Amino acid sequence: MPNETPASCEARKSDFSSFLAALPERAVRIDVSSELPISTLGVPPGTGSVLELSERALRLDGAAIERKALSERLASASGTLYVAARPETTIAELRAVLADVPKGVEPKLLVRTERSAGAFLAVPGASERSRELASELLAERDPKERVELARRAYAELNDCPAVAQSVSSVEGLKAGDRWPALKKLLSDAVPRCPCASLDTAGLSALLFAEQRAGTAALGSLPLAFLRDERCGATMPLRSVQRLLEQIEQFDAEFAGRYADDAIRFETIVTNDRLLVQFCDALPGETLAALEKARRTLWVRLSSGACEGFTFEPLSPGAPMGTLRRTKPAGTAPLAFHYWQAAEEIGVFGPLSGDLPTKPTDQREWPCRTNYKLTGIEPEFVSLETGRFFFAEAACRSAPANGTLGGCLADQAASAPSP
Fold first, then answer.
1. Of 36, 138, 185, 353, which residue is most buried, by most CB within 10 angstroms?
2. How many whole angstroms separate alpha carbon 14 and alpha carbon 34?
3. Residue 218 main-chain phi, psi, to 5 deg
4. Which ranges constitute the DSSP H helices of 340-400?
5. Model pTM score
6. Element containing residue 321 per DSSP (H, E)
7. CA-to-CA distance for 292 and 280, rounded, in angstroms?
8. Rounded mean pLDDT, 51-74
9. Domain map of the chain by residue range?
10. Rounded Cα distance, 379 and 258, in Å
11. CA atoms of 152 and 137, how far apart (whole Å)
């Protein structure tokens, strides 16, 4: 720096050291090979694992993984999981994968945006050339090309031998190891650099880009709301790209109600608001979707035990069929027929293995109950007496007022052991 005093030089290097220390210890590394949906919305992604959904396989942080292993792999994870899905991926396909993601992990959808890389590089004092080089690094999606871009950029903007040595020392490291090693080496190197050789503003822009390399044209949007069963009822065949277009319309319409020009989309596009806007299925609609998927629902008995019943529609999409108890140890087979209506479900039986029947048969049944559907929550459908829980864990942790009434519960409680 021309005409710089030793004191101002040391102050500048000290400020740079503080800037470097404040940068995250982990690099943002989001390298995806699949095509992503496009959106005008999205906040820049941060650190987190990346789950890619292709037509035939899943990849977690670049490595292939089986669906059955995903839940176990993420069991102790927390923080954010970025989900990369093709534009034509259906909500049903996306929900099937999210079902294996633990509740402690926050899923977010990756999208392509038209965001300019330079928008993130407003480093005070950085030259136009340094911002240009940093923008190229921030925008480059190919990991190998990013390494070469970084090497040329550091060489062009800095004459300090210690910086050059630090940069050359991390070449050849894996992408996940490069950033923490470079950060540590530069922290040690900068104090040894002559002031005239060190462009701290330009180096700051490069390091910001290095830590977030390849993410300039990426954004992320809330995705956790799709876990709700109501979303499966309202839009199972809707594509991800179509949903994004509708979210953009919702954002534009909702933002127009505010007079504050500074309002940001992420104060509007939240999981809670998206759930209400796009997953407003009624209890009957949600239950019908679960029946169609042949799902197992859980009921809580007066004894406190929870038992599962699986829906078996008479034909695909039929509003009637058989409700069959799963077979925990020590229980006999137990099944009923059901008819699903908009605001209630009729259950009648029990069925006898000696006399095959259909729900369309006209006959007298020992037990018949019409359960009125009164509401829906994230973990259950409310009945006039009791609940249908979506998971056994939710059933077991439910209070006593979730106990099922009617003859289905009576028969389940009194069914003899085999």
1. 138
2. 42
3. -110, 145
4. 392-396
5. 0.78
6. strand 320-325
7. 18
8. 88
9. 6-28+116-211, 49-115+219-278, 284-414
10. 33
11. 10
